[in-house]
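MODEL INPUT / OUTPUT PAIR
PAIR INDEX: 1
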Amino acid sequence: MLPPTDFFVTNLDGTPVLAQENTLPGLLGTIGLSYVVARLYRPHWSRLAQLVLAAIWFGAFELSYVLHTLGHIQSARQIGAPMDSVLLTWGLQSNVYHNEDVTARQHVGRAAGGPIVTSLLVATAMPFYALLRRVPLLKELSEIWLFCNAFNLGVALMPIPHFDAASILKWTTAQRSGEVALGDEAVQKAGSLAIAGLFGAASLLVLRGQWRAAIGSLIGASIAIADLFALKGRLPG
């Protein structure tokens, strides 16, 4: 029986997609953020054009996110440790595995599918953007698609507990050393280095007068600190 706060939405490649009550406000927040991005991206466009652009940003991001999740579903199935469900919470898509008694190799296989698919999406989006960047409208669409996939890939490769790179690093280290604790230690060290890198990037961007990018780096560093030291990979309640 499903927990009372989880609602069935649909199936994604045979995997049930569930949603919690906070999914709607999370999606509304994502839509609002898409509008902010659209206004920053094209400040001189009309309000209506910015709203259309925000809808495109939102749709592209969600499609990229779904394809990333499909990669996880397929890789988990192929490695013999299938995903039980996808949980939508605060606008995020989380992979749910009830059986954690799997090998280190299976843990890595579960985590690898998403970054592999998103890497392929970035690799194919780049030549399309290079080809279309001088064509009105198509330039916008190809640039947005490239950015959304590059953003999702960058997040997935952050070595902090909630994201894919940390799981790959943890279980690869555990498999080679035979100690899960060493895998956790590797994630702590790599995550701390990533946070230091984000703060360093923010400082450099401030010196160059790129305040918006600096704020983005600081937000990323704050999220990483929360996930690495407070949440430790758990979803916020």
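PAIR INDEX: 2
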Amino acid sequence: MGIKTSQQWWAEVKADPKRFNGWLLRQFRGEATAAKRIVDFADKYAPDTQSKRILYTIASQEAQHADWVLQLLKTRGIEPDTSGAEKRYWKETLPEIRSFETGAAVAAHAEKMRLERIRTISEDPTAPADVKDTFTRILKDELFHECAFREMAGPEALELTLASHRQGRKALGLEP
């Protein structure tokens, strides 16, 4: 199986109800677990109150995203849970976190990766209206998250964590 563009991936997901529901459940799990992961990171690594405040804001927004996706699940009669959250990508990238900067870099890479797919959904005129609306709202926050993490990381840490990010992308089937 070759690497798909985000548009190809999204066309396949939205055309298959079982795959769509599974994807939506994974989005809920990802948003819900991201909030906790970011708070834990802030508590362990934030070097000052300003950085901690930004990280807590991001965590709060991730929790809000989880609530929005939870509403999509409920509307579709999908039972929400956070077990089995995505581990393939994080297995490759979390070990790179050795400092505030490397942790921010890992997060910046992950956010940038998600932005491509979120944009695809947000810009799709044939996406289910509630999903398009929800992911358009999420997109605005995720743009802020990627920018904030990238600035906190700095170019050196972004470069240092790039190889593990690529390994994570490979684990997800997003790179050859």
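PAIR 2 NOTE: Helices lie at 6-15, 17-45, 49-75, 88-93, 100-122, 129-160, 162-171.
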